[in-house]
Amino acid sequence: MDPTRPVAEALAVRDGRIVAVGSADQVRRLAEGECQQVDLAGGALLPGFVDAHNHFSVAALDVFWADCSTPPVGSIAEIQAALRRAAAKTPPGEWVRGWGYHHAHLAERRHPTREDLDEAVPARPTVLMHFSHHQCIANSLALAATGITRTTPEPPGGEIARDKSGEPTGLLFERAMGLCELKSREGWERRFSEVAAAASRRYAAAGITTVQDAAVSPRMAERYREAARAGHLGIRIQMMAVAAGGWFEPPAEVSRDRPWETGGPNLLAGSLKIFVDGGYRCAMRLPKGGKMVTSGFLFYRRAELADLMVAAWRQGWPVTCHAIGNLGIETCVGAIEDALRREPGGEGMVRIDHAMFLTKELIGRIKALGIRVVVQPAFVYDLDAGSAGEGILRLPFRTLRDAGIPLAFSSDFPCGTLSPLVGIYAAATRRTRSGEAGDPEEAIPVQAALEAYTINAARAGGLERECGSLEPGKRADLIVLDRNPLQVSPEELPRLKVVRTFVAGQEVFP
């Protein structure tokens, strides 16, 4: 991923850093004293993948919760069975939690209800997270524990689903789910250090050596520091800060002070995250019946968002804006324009993550502002192909790249498929899990996709001096693939194997 030396024969590492890249003879001449020589036997050495938007802390804790992913789970009855099994292993005092269901893929073609969860786990507060993590189902005890009743008003940027009589059904959207999600997770976070090492190994097996965790509360940052002190972080984590009161809450009280300090070589402070719109129900504006119709959840007005950005920049925070729908992105871009007029020092300190539904006009404004964009190519693979609406471009990788906007890739795991090789395949082929092609004109070359998952992803987090390419002086974060991804057909990419992974020169996989 170094344009001045795209390919080399050999690489030398000393004290965890790359000291030379070049021909085998050049590198061998550096050997002195005790020296380990590694023959890759025809494999390909690449910089470790950088996942620029991931939820490592949530994914690590998933081992304690019920896996209700659809597939393989196919019905509400199977979800109930999974929750019962999880409840039997859940310690007293902790909430029961499930994750990964997709209502459209269940046999019943509907969301479960509070009654469905009550039947499975009647005596414990229980929450079932949608695969998007932007909506959930709460059972009756969970609703009671968070004060949600028939008289509870709708929170701004959220919705409490209700039956015909006005009673909550248990289905909660966006900010309405914030407290249930928080309470279902907070007790388990105390056990994060127990599972951080195993999660690190899982990521290393996928070739990921650096993760930007896109939702770290002040309390979770302390848990990260505990894991780092115990030596349980096997890969590098950069923490993206969110409010203590929940993922979707305004982050006004987040300061640059502890716990956001660096916690050793594998734990770094990152940006401040602001949710601009919803997830599965993002903020869209589309033509319908001769007029423009809006839908989804928008968390801030343009002026409110600009105020948050200016306040963050003045505290020294880079800002990451979660914006998915075209209305959410339009609000975000307008707020950035306004904020930069008030605080020019914010230039280069803001990026947009997801940017899933764009227009050519928005792409032009993003380019003019110099905003980095972090997208999830695995969403092409995970979601159904289909039209986004008139004039709307859906994950337009090629259009963004042709406009000169630096593309960085990520997985959003556990909301999307973890494997970078699957993401690179999806970017290069635009094929879904079922093999259907969606917007094939937006495919990009494999080389560009590799850059988006390495050096460009590092740049998105300000880490380009440390990782993302194989250059002298950088950390020796390396992966060995069984084959060269530039010398196989794009269809073969998901079948490539990560053979070895090194973090700062130390082998962490296998």
List the defining traits of the structure above:
alpha/beta, TIM Barrel, 2 domains, eight-stranded parallel beta sheet, globular
Could you explain how this protein is built, in words?
- The protein is α/β, with parallel strands linked by helices and 510 residues long.
- It folds into two domains: 119 residues, Diaminopimelate Epimerase, Chain A, domain 1 (Roll); 275 residues, TIM Barrel.
- It is built from 16 helices and 24 strands.
- The strands form six sheets. It has an eight-stranded parallel β-sheet with strand order 4-11-12-13-16-17-19-21. Strands 5-6-7-8-10-9 form a six-stranded mixed β-sheet, with helices on both faces.
- The protein is globular and about 80 Å long.
- The chain starts with 9 loop residues before the first strand and ends with a strand.
